[in-house]
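User: Is it possible to get a 3D structure for a protein together with its bound compound? The compound here is guanosine-5'-diphosphate. I've pasted both below.
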Amino acid sequence: MKLALFGWNSQRQQKFAAYASAGLLPGRVVGEHRTHFRVATEVAELTAEITGRLRNIAKQRSDLPGVGDFVALQLSVGDGPASIEAVLPRSSALIRKAAGEQRPQLIAANIDVIFIVTGLDGDFNLQRLERYLALVRESGATPVIVANKIDLAADLAGVTKQIETLAPGVALHAISARTHASIADLEHYFDGNRTIALIGSSGAGKSTLTNQLLGRDAQATGEVRSHDSRGRHTTTHRALFLRDAGGAIIDTPGMRGLELWNAQHDAADNFEDIEALAADCKFSNCRHESEPGCAVRAAVKRGDLDQARFASFPRSSQSTRR
Ligand code: GDP
Ligand code: ZN
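Assistant: Yes, that's possible. Here is the predicted structure of the complex:
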């Protein structure tokens, strides 16, 4: 394994100099679990844990390592996990700020370019695109707009004009994720082993495009079945995928539903996200309990709406809503 394939370069090596002289090893977090991380290093992919010291100096949860972070590792003497001693300064950080949550959460770090995927079918929505753009700019990554499902576009010229007016200077690619040929325009964003992430609403075509860009089935690789020491199946949550053709794609569960989380991060105590979803419930007086066609429960099931946040949605607000 070569860390350069994961985006390790001379600038990062420079920032690492002090850690290197302390005998630490550089690595990149490729998977996050409840109790540990998977970290790619020059020699192998390792299991690593956060040190108590690092946990203590973290001012907020987003200071702790997450997927995409470059870290300084102390290898264990025996068979145990390595320890993450430090997180290198991030070139970008995609953060989830949820109304119900006090502490911002890191979704992924060191993403170079974020593809904002939007469908050119009936799903197209300019306000939503604007919110995604704000989110990407806040992260420090470079936004690229990928207008997908060109085959279903009713008015390509009109939509293109709208997007260009909204986001002057932002690269725009109109493609069909279903055909391999049309993704050729996106390949160069991976040059220099850069890291890409895809965001966009559910159904926009992110999984289809991810599979095309990886040249294999990301959904299948997303949940790798492996054996633990007792021979049982365990599920490993990989979130950073290397492309055979160079570069990497970060795809974490937290990236789904990002828009809903951040759309209302200024309002501390409202439920705009749930209200917005409820607009699509089959019944206008839906209580999101057991009614058929409930868009809110469907969003929870898809993972677009956090179960805990749904649970915190007050009963009173539910019944007086309409
Ligand atoms: P995601 O939720 O953003 O990951 O979206 P998916 O990748 O699962 O795609 C949603 C649906 O749109 C699937 O049925 C895809 O086959 C379809 N789809 C994706 N790209 C295209 C496209 O370029 N044209 C058409 N017609 N359908 C597409
Ligand atoms: Zn409902």
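The two ends are 58 Å apart (CA to CA). Residues 145 and 175 are 10 Å apart (CA to CA).
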